Amino acid sequence: MMQTLSSLEFEPFLLSFKLASITTLILFFFSLPLAWYLSQTRSKYKPFIEALTALPIVLPPSVLGFYILVSLSQNSLLGAFFEDVFGVKLVFNFTGLVVASCFYSLPFMVQPLQGGFESINKNMLEASYIAGKSKLRTIISVALPNMKPAVLTAFVITFAHTVGEFGVVLMVGGSIPNETKVASVAIYEMVEMMDYTGAHIYSFLMLIISFFILLAVYTFNHSKKIGGFS
Amino acid sequence: MLSININKKLHGSQGDMELDVNLEIKEGEFLAVSGKSGSGKTTLLRILAGLEESKGRIKFSNKIWQDETNFLVSQKRKIGFVFQEYALFENMSVRDNLLYVKRDKKLCTKLLEMTELSELKDKMPNTLSGGQKQRVSLCRAMMQKPKLLLMDEPLSALDTQIRKKLQQEILALHREFEMTTIMVSHEPSEIYRLASRVVILDQGKLINDGTPKDILLRQSGSQKFSFEGELLEIVKVDVIFIAVIAIGQQVVEVVVSLDEVRNLKTGQKITVSTKAFAPVITI
Questions:
Q1: Distance (Å) from the alpha carbon of B177 to chain A's nearest alpha carbon
Q2: N or C: which end of chain A has fewer CB within 10 A?
Q3: Where residue A33 sits, what CATH number does that domain have?
Q4: Which residue from A minimizes the CA distance to B144?
């Protein structure tokens, strides 16, 4: 048993967490203006943007992965641009995974943030404008501090969802050790090679980690609801 | 001088209507805006604050706030606004609510002292009572030393005693900072006590404009008492009938004749009035 454990590689886990951390951070800054816009706008285009943002929830990951692969490959405009200008390939490497994960996990960051912004008393925001404060200052000093549970939920769910992705990663990243072979892909490979012991250990670890992440969020949000914001 | 000449289509609860206000307010004046709910009072205040757009012109002491081509955003109007439901920044202490507006510790201390809030300066808003919250909101509105203070039914959620105290504080602040004040209010006694002028809005139009004395006395008719109430019950006592009526917070009994009883139904909205040649006032 100890021999099996010590022979296991944990790089796929580290890679999964590295990918999830970077994706979450990028998505937070990208989603903040988008979620704010969606929460404040009365534009008739709002449902259109909302539907577009929510697509990754319903699309099969293989479809999403396929489109991302096609649009980021060296033969595409975007892929060619990045390769020529920055010398960066966007598929079958870690950078490609980050880009793909950002698409894949977008709704999990945008939706809780949008819900959070919408739950804030509008007059509170207006009081800040009347006090001469810009929208950015109002978001940072008034809106975000008053929606901590929503921010935490957005962070953790995005992180957990990115750790749990499989289809998109496999399509865009393949399974290159230390580059694109994340935990979920590693488990898939182990099963294919009939290494059930390894698959058991990896899967069990994933299960425990995911459960405790979710438990932490729900416990925090529950205590906030009871104790208020003070 | 604040001159308002605005127009906006509203979709109210009683169908569409047009808010059409043409008004000039002198510097230092205390104007009360009254009228039925849904008549456009709050919208007028929000338009003045730059929170809603409308057609027309607004000019405040020679500065154009809006006309055909310009629109000065709320951030630049340097006004004070007191919301009906306080709208305090829940994540900041009382003191920080004030200092967020402007880092002027001296003014902050002075305002908190004037409104007897000094002891509560480190408390969070959700631990305060309604009256305390509205005082904080009032102080917060004063932090920019506004030349124009707008208040949207600031006292309507508070009970009578707290109301009176806050009325005095509002008046003290109005005088101390020499500002123009516009307050939406339904309460005649409040308007009488605070305002120097009152306008009545009805379906988006100004239908009355004058001193509180003129307007409020005119409204209530020819020197008589008149109260709106609800008929709760009619009781027959020997040969007479007694109607039990709820007027405001009070329940009163009024003697009615048989003829009157025939026309009355319990649950009806009724008016109780009397010519008062020599009313008795007791304390």
A1: 17
A2: N
A3: 1.10.3720.10
A4: A131
DSSP result, B34-90: EE-TTSSHHHHHHHHTTSS--EEEEEETTEEEESSS-B--GGGT--EEE-TT----T
Q: What's the average model confidence in pLDDT over A204-208?
A: 91
Structure tokens at A69: 């692969």
Domain range spanning residue A86?
A: 14-227
Q: Is A80 helix (H, G, I), strand (E, B) or coil?
A: helix
In the block, tokens 């025939």 appear at: B262
Confidence of residue A1 (pLDDT cuts 50, 70, 90): low
Instruction: For residue B184, give both structure tokens.
Output: 């939406």
Residue in A130, A134, A229 closest to B90 by CB: A229
More confident position, B282 or B227: B227
The DSSP bridge pattern shows strands B2-12 and B55-60 to be: antiparallel
- Contacts of residue B103, defined as CB under 8 A and 6 or more positions apart, other chains included, come to none
Contact assessment for residue B212 and residue B199, using Cβ atoms and an 8 Å cutoff: no
Structurally, chain A folds into a number of domains equal to: 1
Q: What is the pLDDT of residue B279?
A: 65
Q: Cα separation of B86 and B140, whole Å?
A: 10
The domain over range B2-219 is classified in CATH as 3.40.50.300? yes
Token pair 């100890």 in the structure block, residue: A2
Q: pLDDT tens, A10-55?
A: 888 899 999 999 999 999 999 999 999 999 999 999 999 999 999 9
Residue corresponding to tokens 């285009």: A45
pLDDT value for A229 = 41
Residue A7 resides in a domain:
no
The answer to whether residue B111 scores a pLDDT higher than 90 is: yes
pLDDT value of residue A228: 44
This prediction's pTM: 0.82
Mean pLDDT of A205-230: 78
Confidence (pLDDT) at B276: 61
Query: In angstroms, rounded to a whole number, what is the distance separating the alpha carbons of residues B20 and B170?
Result: 28
Classify residue A136: in a domain, yes or no.
yes
B90 contacts A131? CB cut-off 8 A: no
Nearest CA in chain B to A148: B91
Residue spans of the domains in chain B: they are: 2-219, 224-275
Report the chain B residue with the minimal C-alpha distance to residue A132.
B75
Q: State the Cα–Cα distance between residues B60 and A220, nearest whole angstrom.
A: 49
CATH of B224-275, one of 2.40.50.100, 2.30.30.100, 1.20.1070.10, 3.10.450.50: 2.40.50.100
Closest partner residue to A121 among B81, B87, B101, by Cβ?
B87
Interchain proximity A129–B90, CB inside 8 Å: no
